[in-house]
Design goal:
Length: 858
Amino acid sequence: MNRKIKILMHTHWDREWYFTKDETKVLLRNHMQEVLEYLEEHPDCIYILDGQSVMIDDYLEMDKGAEARLRKFVKNGQLRVGPFYTQTDLLLVHGESVFRNLYYGIKRAREFGDPMLIGYAPDTFGHASQMPQIYKAFSIGSTFFWRGFSELKAQHSDFFWEGTDGTKILGVNLAAGYQGAKYLEEEEEALKKRMGKIMKVLDTYSSGSGRLVMNGHDQMPIQKNIEDILETLRKLYPEDELEIGDFESYLDTLPLENLETVKGELTHSKHARIHRTIGSTRMDIKLLNTEIEHKLFHQLEPLAVIGVEAGIEYPHGVIEEILKILFGVHAHDSIGGCNSDAVNRDIYHRLLNAKEMVDTQLELHLRLLSLARPENNTIVLVNPLPEERKEEMVELVTLTRQKNFTILDEHHKEIPFSLLSQEEEDAGLTDRQVAARLMDIKVYRSKLLLRVDKMAGLSVKYLQLQEELSSVAPLMKAEETLIIENVWGVLKVEGNQISYEDKITGINHQNVFYLENSGDAGDSYDYSPPVKDLLVRSADLAEITGKRRSGMGFQELQLYIQFNVPESEESREREVLDKTVTFEAVFRLYEKDPKVYCELKHKNIVKDSRFRGVFSTGITVDEVQVDGYLSSQNKKVYLNEELAIWEKDQWVEKPVSIETMQSYAVLYDNRGSGYLYSEGLKEYEVLEDQIHFTLFRAFSHLGKRNLVNRPGRPSGIEIETPDNQLQGTEFHFRFAFSFHLKDVNPSKESKKYLTPIMGYHKKEFNRFNINRRNALIVPQKKLSLPLQEAAVSAVKRTEEGNEVFVRIFNPENRDITVEFPEGTFLANGMEEKLRPLEKAQLRPQEILQVILSSMEEI
């Protein structure tokens, strides 16, 4: 047999795991020095730098004089870098984060030479079905990966992978693992035995003559005796061709005309663990990450686009810094939370730094926009979507000297509003100059809710706050009746149950929402039910107390939901409910919105537990519609095929029917639909007519062996991680639900839900003083694009040219046509212009990227 055996030399470089990123930075310096020395001595050798360009930055940070030497080997092709900036997770982070990770990874690699345009994601815990199209946007036509493959997908490990929109790329599963040929033996008999096992696997799964032998492992140093090993291998396999190769040369061996086609997500756990429930590990980290992503992509970037029209420089450097902090957190172990306590603390602290940066830049931009108008007490409203908005509610905070004030629109007409809260405070707590001068100034911090009738896309509206002109709207009075309603439905509390009556259909949804507590005997990689579990539901035994209040355009219930649960694993085994837990809940209805808006606050005081929210839809179906990366797709409610064979075929992990969404899940049939919108809660399971979405888990170890759903060895290492019990952690969860008779576009609704109109009051007292710039002007340009059913993913400025860049996608199952203003160009993932574009027909789930020469409303 004439096989073409490619020995691929690499290292898999986890920046952090049960060791910190600072430890690996020091070790990377030593590693890279050895690699560069070896490449100098062996000019025919190729070395793969794990598909992540951050290793360039980490190395040069520790060895500042090595740039020219490093550049030499990237430029001549011996050292392969990119395309990712870091080895990101490909299910849990925002779709825009994946785009930006590839953008900055390729950009950094280009500064040294040609990037490796291979979608190399060796250890990622599953692969989203939209990745073929995302890869193609960067001229990447293939992916090499380890986790997620089974014979239910294809018989061979080489195939065409077809994405959600029909885009196809080459997919290669590393059947023997990315670490299969680590530390190859030099002694002939030992090498023969080792290679025999590897070649047996590769001969079984490879579709062509090529055999990809991965010589590397986690933080593995370069194997300096590889040339001697090659000589021994040539003796052992005299009929085969052997060489140190790369991914591209392996692709050349594939029989393209005979390859199978694989569709959908790559999340099977037959040969390698996928950790399907890692989506709820360390929810404090995941929720903070999602908050930053949403503020960055949904608010700051479009706000900064508007800011340019007002004379405010676009903050490219700030945004890049925030993104690169996020990229470091998005590595599969990092965002997975499957780390030591010390590493998770470091990750959380870095995210806090990123949050401070995005919050400060948001406030600075809003403040500068308010300064564009010379009047004091200006209120600025911003629509960060490039589409017109109608009849939406806006929350904002004011800081005034007087308790009483009115708000006037641009025509000096009084605008009604509701006063949600008002507190008196010392101005010196906000403004240091007040405290330094010993000035005793009392101010009122008020939280308002007002309605915006209409706003054009990417536009600004200015209002005026006037103090002492009339009485402020009084604070809402609390009422004992726990019932609220609008034209769509009635939400009420009766005993320990929350129900919703749909006025359109007349259906009464009993227990429309409740809380569920179960045991968790798992580890940081996987939820695992205890051998003896005890399920506790708030709908069965909770005490619900609270009040009702209403104001201009809204009604809400403020509730305390209390019930008893087991304090620990031991209590659960004894079936003792020995701890009272409390969830503070707010359910709000708006006059002109069918959604029920929900917020939960909770401080965890129990261990070894999982808490889930449960949304009862009244609809029982076999598929659920969810959003993935820039797409809408249907997923099976229950993995019948996989679960029927996993034990017989000895899968390494049970394929539990717990899945990942980005921001919504929908159950629908011919009677209606139940929609769940989520702000960071991404793990769900559909059981009968209910969507169970995980709020958080509390557990004891980084890794455990012999879990109920994961037999055998531990994942990671068996060390205690008491921080994972999340004792004392305060959570703030946000979600919404609704019912509809007719179809709505949940992708567009979700984008609106996650992208509220922003409001800001120009305050007299501020933490930092800034000067008003002479160049500031009131922005006049708007951008209301007729996107039809297309949903917006990003609105930003390009780094090259500083032009408006928009990324949209078609979430429908039919073609749609979108028109653009004159001067629009089709663009690629690197935000480079391809050709002029006036009109585009988008196939289902297609992503489109355009550059607009200017903001012109059409």
